[in-house]
Amino acid sequence: MKKMKTHAMALILLSVMVALSGCGSSNKGADKEVSGNNVEKKPETVETIKLKFYAQYSGQEKAAYDAAKEAMKKVMPEVEVEFEVAAQDDEQKIKTYAAAGTLPDIFFASSGLIETLKNSDNLLVLDDVVKANDIESKLNETSKAMLWNKDGHSYSVPNVGQWAAVIFFNKEIFEDNNIKVPANYTELLEAVTALKAKEITPLTLFAKEKWTGVQLLDMAIVGSDPGGLKKLDNGEGTFSDEAYIQGASKLEELVKAGLLSKNAFNTTYDDAVAQFTSGKAAMLLNGAWSMGALEEGLGEGKMGMLYTPFTDADKVDSAQWNISGGGFNQGFAVSKNSKYPEVAAKYAALISLEFNKQRVIQIGDPNSILVEEVQPTVGFTPIQQQYAKDAVNFKSMTTFAWGFENAKFKTVIEDNSQKLLAGQKLDDFIQDMNKELERVRN
Amino acid sequence: MTSKQKYRVALLVFTVPTLLFFSIMVVYPILQTFQKSFFDWDGLTPATFNGLDNFIRLFQDDDFWVSLKNGLIFAFVLVVYQLGLGTVLAIALSNKNIFGRKFFKTTYFIPVVLSSVVVSQLFIAIYNTDGGLVNSLFTLFGFNYQQAWLSGEHSSIWAIAFTNAWQNLGVHLVLIYAAIKSIPEHLYEAATIDGATFWRSHWKITIPLLGETYKFCLIMAITGGLNAFQNMFVMTNGGPGNISYTFTFMMYKAAFRSGEYGYGSAAAAFLVIECLLFTILINKIVAREKISY
After folding, report:
1. pLDDT, tens digit, for every residue of B144-162?
2. What is the rounded distance in angstroms from the CA atom of residue A316 to the CA atom of residue A281?
3. How far apart are CA B23 and CA B49, in angstroms?
4. Which of A15, A88, A384, B21 fits A366 for a cystine, CB–CB 3.0-4.6 Å?
């Protein structure tokens, strides 16, 4: 009996070991399972090629993705796409996929992610597919830059236009309180002081997302140097340069005047929108992509946009179209380890353009990347029309924080810009940033 | 095979699966973290050995000192609140003359079963500068003391630590309460006959006999404080800047935001050593002699 017990225990031990070894190889197993059907059927003879597509397949974008997928069935009927909703996680999940060698066939890649995956040899070069499908000629002038990396190759095909970072304002608050809508820095400071005196939050910033602080700083810099923070990310200049000192100094002054709520660092996007649309805050910073949703909340015709309110009065004419925001060489990219690299590359290139077209049609995106004129189903609102008209004048753009190529710089500027907005002294900020710049560039 | 040998074999058969599982899930990752802390590694490309560079940088990094200080503050708050208040409440609840003891026991334990995210959101509202409960109470009592509790350089970590302390008070309360209930009643009867007051008998009997429980609670509270992450992730995202960083947050920033897995591993390795040191220290100092009754 005792012998039997010992044997039974040994059996349990063995089964646990087998179970654990099973856990260890689960990823590989899953990987094989996904491609298993295709292995059995041989790629040459398959009728359906399944591609995994990691994208922002949620919210209002879902309709555009679905419509683009339907349209693509006519062009590449052999391809069946399975969407995986991208996580809002600083690209951690997609990087983990890359580390594990399980990148989806197609995925959205920002400039920063492209650099990371390029260095680790995970990205497929799309030069041939871009040329073969004449992609560049289908893109308008401002969007062509997004197709090419600084090394001369294409790693992604743009799917959305370059959005500006914008300060939206509530027209009624400014009118009702007899405050001039700021056209330059002096007027902005006056407006902030006046709004604060009337117990209205001048600017609601959802600074729990650290990029918003970075964008505010970038907006304060582009009035003096169109390169903004992107220039520092590229390895040029330091925070001791005049434009950066001026930008940071303006923010320091505005913060002292009461630009932000004390809760700004715990404020989420939804909180900020609620404050803005309820009239508790006069201005809100975000990318121009949110204009439709914000206008809907505030009421048509009640919202305006400011691009460069931090610019000195004497520089407004020359710098008013130096825009903060944008982003380069980003869009749908393809994994080098895809089972069907050629098919995935062609599909990624074509659906990028189709997706942009559907964004215009389905959700009224006024920022098309296409030469082809596309009209939305419901027409553009006045503010969307205004943006489309302004966008033609944009002289230069920087990037949003996720477009920084140096991840270390991105982290450093995100944390330090928050410190500045929380009341850090200008000299300490400049000193800390210069010290960090030296480190992240090595 | 003698019966002693058979006993040893049975012992092995029972313990080896667990030890194996523990080794694979805990020990191996820890060893790998220590190994990676000597490398410059972005998580994707091959790692390059850089000796002690990560540790040298660690001690020169402002984030490190902020994280160390915050971790200690966090642990301090947990110890004082959870063990201090936990003991007082447990003593009160163990008194049969207290009315509604069952209700209070359940009530104190409810926050434990709530999600950290829910509790964090609740406290974000409580700490809100405009109209939050804390600031409103100050106004109500006539104090003009309006604070940005979660954004203030000196208040943020205390506010977050209190959130965690409040939520997990129930765990320590239950542990201490159970330990108190296991103390034989005749010890208190003898103390009463000798003329000891209620508080004196608890001071002289209950507290010393809770040594083993306190040891466990202390280790849980201190390592929990040093390891804290969830609350600051939800409430402040480590900010503004780095003012609410702890080592886990620093590790998260280095590895997942900056792509410096080697440096993040160095921060993690330091945290493991720190927790280990505290555990050894507590084991050496608290309840050195096992009391049996």
Report:
1. 888 889 998 899 999 999 9
2. 25
3. 25
4. A384
Residue B236: list chain A partners with CB under 8 A: 208, 265-266
- Smallest CA–CA distance, residue A18 to chain B, in Å, is 11
Tell whether B29 lies on the interface with A, counting CB pairs under 8 A.
no
Among the listed residues B8, B157, B128, the one whose alpha carbon sits nearest the alpha carbon of residue A265: B128
Domain chopping of chain B, boundaries: 1-26, 37-285
Judging contacts by C-beta atoms under 8 Å, the chain A residues touching residue B237 are 208-210, 265
What's the pLDDT tens digit per position in B184-199? 989 999 999 999 888 8
Helix (H, G, I), strand (E, B) or coil at A415: helix
pLDDT < 70 positions in chain B: 290-293
Q: What is the pTM of this model?
A: 0.83
Q: Which CATH number fits domain B37-285: 1.20.1740.10, 1.10.3720.10, 1.10.10.10, 3.10.560.10?
A: 1.10.3720.10
- Residue A272 in contact with residue A207, Cβ under 8 Å? no
> How many alpha carbons fall within 13 Å on the CB side of residue B139?
10
- Interface contacts (A, B; CB < 8 Å): 111
The domains found in chain A, sorted by start residue, are 46-161+327-374 (3.40.190.10), 165-325+388-440 (3.40.190.10)
- The type of residue at A65 is Y
Placement of tokens 């995210």 in the chain: B117
Under DSSP, the state recorded for B24 is I
Tell me the torsion sign for CA atoms B275, B276, B277, B282.
Answer: positive
CB contact under 8 A, B236 and A266: yes
User: pLDDT of B249-274, one tens digit each?
Assistant: 999 999 988 889 999 999 999 999 99
Write out chain B residues lying below 8 Å of A16, CB-based: 17, 20-21
Residues of B in contact with A421 (CB under 8 A): 240
| Cα A434–chain centre separation | 26
Within 175-234 of B, beta carbons closer than 8 Å to A belong to none
